[in-house]
Amino acid sequence: MVDAAVSDPLRLRDDEPLEEPAVTLDAFTGQPDATAVRLEAGDDARALIPFLDRLRLIEIAFPRFRDGRGYSAARILRENGYTGELRAQGDVLVDQLLFMRRCGFDSFAPEAPLDPSAVADAFARFPDYYQTAADHAVPIWQKRAQDADRG
């Protein structure tokens, strides 16, 4: 698993078994003590909003790299206050990692192993952004305005 928290953009670690396995969204509604849930590609992330404070892990499935619904789910969860681990699992490619992180993912469980140097390159590729996102990076236009105000 690649863990890419914003504070530590590249930290590699082996898969760590959860104390409690992630349950499906359907099973989650019947398990009031569950703290880990897995969203499949067609699941509506908004169903978890009332429970975000009790969740430690939300794993979002990417059945195919071209399926972008997981990006939207991550952004919805982060914008509604979810602060726990948000994991992208499945057909996750190195080219997607930076954009997944911008949407709020902070850990990755790809089906195929990723080269650590390629992961580091992917996260370093774009040091500045024009738009705001769930990662709270300051957009370049705002940095430029702040520099102009100082100078």
Automatic annotation (TrEMBL):
<protein>
    <submittedName>
        <fullName>DUF934 domain-containing protein</fullName>
    </submittedName>
</protein>
<dbReference type="InterPro" id="IPR008318">
    <property type="entry name" value="UCP030820"/>
</dbReference>
<dbReference type="Pfam" id="PF06073">
    <property type="entry name" value="DUF934"/>
</dbReference>
